[in-house]
Amino acid sequence: MTAVLNGSDPWQRDGVDPALVAALHHSVGEALTAAHVAHEEAGRGRFSPADERALARKLVTDELRKLAASAYADGREPLDEATEAKVTAAVLDRIHGLARLQPLLDDPDIRDIHISGAQRVWLNLRDGTKVRGPAVADSDEDLVELISTAARRIGRSERRWDHAHPELNLQLPNGDRLHALMAVSGRPTVTIRRHDFDIHRVSQLVDRGVCDDLTASFLSAAVRARANIIVAGGTGTGKTTTLRCLINEIPADERLITVEDSLEIGLERFEDLHPDHETLEAREANTEGVGSFTLAELVRSALRMDPQRVIVGEVRGAEVLPMLLAMSQGNDGSMCSIHADSSKGVFGRLAMYAAMTPERLVPDVTNLLVANAVDLIVHLGWVNGERRVTSVRQVVGSVEGGQVVSNELWRPDASGSGVPAAPPTPEFAAQLEVHGFDATAHAAAQGWWR
Fold first, then answer.
1. 95-144 pLDDT per residue, tens
2. Cβ within 8 Å of residue 44, ≥6 positions away
3. Is the Cβ–Cβ distance between 197 and 184 less than 8 Å?
4. In sequence order, what DSSP letters do the residues of 221-275 get, joined into one string?
5. Is the N or C terminus of the chain more exposed, i.e. has fewer CB atoms within 10 Å?
6. What angle do CA 25, 288, 23 make, to 5 degrees?
7. What is the 8-class DSSP label of residue 138?
């Protein structure tokens, strides 16, 4: 970490002109974007990563050849071979990586990166500390150019980040999530949330203290029993990681469809665990204002793709209705995540989102739908600076007084960690036992179920 925090731009240390790198990055980036568009319009899709790298290197070489010819014509000394190689490496690093941001993305000790202007960078480390980071560009304009180029080049479809489209959500090649704002903020703002894909099994949640063996055994059995599960919590509490771990408890022979605003679950990284899967990502409108594909539309499309389970990365709008319908109409074992400050607070959050849909469902109707769709709510929170399962709530399938009836099976203790509170319904307990959960042994050990 020390080298990263105290480091300066390696290109400047090597005597490479940053203005030349920026100019070549811009011209080559524009040429690559034009080539991508032409390739797609010809019906051949986007370039493969290997083809894109080869084309980018050729374009850089062509630009350097033009510069050399211009230097000779003006009687100036052209760049020597070693400098050209350094310039080529710097430009390609900006195109395929994120220039001075790349060392931060490659550092395993960094959890989150917060950028407010080119020089004001803060890093949240995985040990819980917060430190000042190095400048990531020479100016705010250079930062905007860097991220705008990445938006056009990275991902399944071209994205814009400019004054007409001031917000950007983007999955980086390493799986991290980038969010950026401009024009509506004092300075261009970039937030990068790192994902640790090494954490992908429920047993690893136990190893890291997120839950204990009892909770882990219960949740694993619930997944295999095809319970419909909502993972809830605040920002940064580990909802996506926990959702990924639960998904990887699903048997390998099932067909899964994931739906996300920006790809984060990373199902494609676990081909051996889920050979039959599809990953769907929302799409913004193009420069003509057409071609958008919303999460709600994606969920509806997913239901036509013969899935056995549908997983929505995060529900926060109109996609709530097709998601609940999927859970209640034969796609048992589906899952999603949602922002909520408690397991009980999920019901109010779902009602709010349902009221915002074109159907404008009233809370009573939403609660009936939730009662028939959702089986479990798993809530995550911060306890003494660590992520913990704080509550597990079973929805028992009925509504009383307009409210969803539920039992909190694990509830927060004095510290905030979830501890056993009430047994599940006998029917649900029997299903769990069929799928490997030894309720009798745990009841005897914990002294709370019987």
1. 777 878 888 988 888 989 999 999 999 999 987 789 999 999 889 998 99
2. none
3. no
4. HHHHTT--EEEEESTTSSHHHHHHHHHTTS-TTS-EEEEESS--S-GGGGTTT-S
5. C
6. 10
7. S
